């Protein structure tokens, strides 16, 4: 039986960074759900489907298979068996993914594919509703969070390191607004699963968080 680790939490908590490092440590597959949405969006683009044509999108979904495999330690995204790693990171695909991910039929299809992947291999998945909706039977569930101030400072440092001008107070406000939207959305709102372990990373560095989650996993 495969082992599944679900990591949920608000924006800026470091879920993806932590999940990738932990996956490497455990030799699990890190399921990049965002890349899966991009692969599906690429299929729609290749087939001339408009982002606002919900009927055509719904008709196309059954024809799409997206999975993730690892080759030489690198994640490869396969769309109907074809490696699409080199083509799904463009702005055009990103915009299409953003526009089409709002449709329940797209989300339903990808959740189905993510669950199939999780039954076949040991996976780590992160998001807003992995432990509550996508993998409710995951053996390890983590709710990773940090204070708004900590998350804003991390984002501020990340942007300024790239030479981007930004305002710390505005970033804090954006994070607060996003938290509210994520927690109050109608479909799959962000919340801590009843059986999830809370990990607050406000006073921890990346390696300390990875180790804390590893210790939780080791006790299962």
TrEMBL record:
Catalysis: reaction(s): CMP + ATP = CDP + ADP; dCMP + ATP = dCDP + ADP
CDD domains: CMPK
Catalytic activity, EC: 2.7.4.25
Gene3D superfamilies, per database record: P-loop containing nucleotide triphosphate hydrolases
Subcellular location(s) per record: Cytoplasm
Keywords: ATP-binding, Cytoplasm, Kinase, Nucleotide-binding, Transferase
Pfam families from the UniProt entry: Cytidylate_kin
Superkingdom of origin: Bacteria
The keyword Manganese appears for this protein: no
Transmembrane segments: none
Presence of keyword Hydrolase: no
Predominant location: cytoplasm
Binding residues annotated for ATP, in chain numbering: 9-17
GO biological process: nucleobase-containing small molecule interconversion; pyrimidine nucleotide metabolic process
GO-annotated molecular function: ATP binding; CMP kinase activity; dCMP kinase activity
Cytidylate kinase domain mapped to chain residues: 5-217
Sequence similarity: Belongs to the cytidylate kinase family. Type 1 subfamily.
Protein known as: Cytidylate kinase
Name of the gene: cmk
């Amino acid at each position: 039986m495969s082992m599944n680790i679900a990591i949920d939490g608000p924006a800026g908590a470091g879920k993806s960074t932590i999940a990738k490092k932990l996956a490497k440590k455990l030799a699990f597959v890190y399921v990049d759900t965002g890349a899966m949405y991009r692969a599906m969006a690429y299929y729609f683009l290749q087939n001339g489907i408009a982002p606002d044509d919900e009927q055509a999108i719904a008709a196309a979904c059954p024809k799409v298979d997206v999975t993730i495999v690892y080759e030489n330690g690198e994640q490869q995204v396969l769309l109907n068996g074809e490696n699409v790693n080199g083509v799904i990171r463009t702005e055009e695909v990103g915009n299409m993914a953003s526009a089409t991910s709002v449709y329940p039929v797209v989300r339903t299809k990808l959740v189905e594919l993510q669950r199939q992947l999780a039954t076949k291999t040991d996976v780590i998945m992160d998001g807003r509703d992995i432990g509550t909706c996508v993998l409710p039977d995951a053996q390890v569930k983590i709710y990773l969070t940090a204070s708004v101030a900590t998350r804003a400072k991390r984002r501020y440092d990340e942007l300024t390191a790239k030479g981007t001008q930004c305002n710390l107070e505005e970033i804090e406000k954006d994070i607060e607004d996003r938290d509210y939207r994520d927690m109050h959305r109608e479909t799959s709102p962000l919340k801590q699963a009843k059986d999830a372990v809370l990990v607050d990373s406000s006073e921890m560095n990346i390696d300390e968080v990875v180790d804390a989650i590893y210790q939780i996993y080791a006790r299962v």
